[in-house]
Target: 18S rRNA factor 2
Amino acid sequence: MDPDGFVGEKTLKPLTPEALAAFKAAQDRAGVIYISRIPPGMRPAKVRHLMNAYGAVGRVYLQQEDPKRAYLRRKFTSTKKVHYTEGWVEFKDKKVARSVAEMLNAQPIGGKKGTRWRDDIWTMKYLPKFKWYMLTEQVAYEAAVHTAKLRVELSQSKTEQQQYLKNVELARVLDKRAAKKREQGEEFELKPNPQPKKRPHDGEEHDKRKKKKGDVPLDSVLSSIF
Model:
């Protein structure tokens, strides 16, 4: 550590074949349960604490509520804390994960009398053949989609703002011209912009030329027959 208290760059050592094999084996043994509803106010640390009572827990991820919904909730209610809507819990043993999901699903959370979530109900399901990397890929994909959507909305908002400012400037110029005309005793009329002439397509021009070439006077045709 340098004198300023900053830690320098860390060098990550590659995993040995034995460590990599052990990591893959641990991933194969692990199981994931899905919690479709997180009680209001419950945080990841509390979920981990409750699940640790049934088995060794690996990773825990809780999805925060939609930002727009969170904004409205904080604006019109007294609750300012972060709320989570759903979550995933990884147990180091898939058998434990399956048994926990079957045992706790549709059951009260319980706890001491007077605790906040005593009467809330667990809604969870074991996800067979589901691994944690699938969740991280899904989260990354949703984040990318959200970012792209936000960029489109910002671009559209910028275009609308520019058009609005353009219309405001045009209205200001027209008002100034109208005031000047009134001072001179003249009447100001707003003339519509001339519409550009529609250019015929190449096919239409070809048909017109063909008709002109094919037009033969009727008298010449009759004289050639008789």
Remarks:
- The longest helix spans residues 132-183.
- The mean pLDDT is 78.
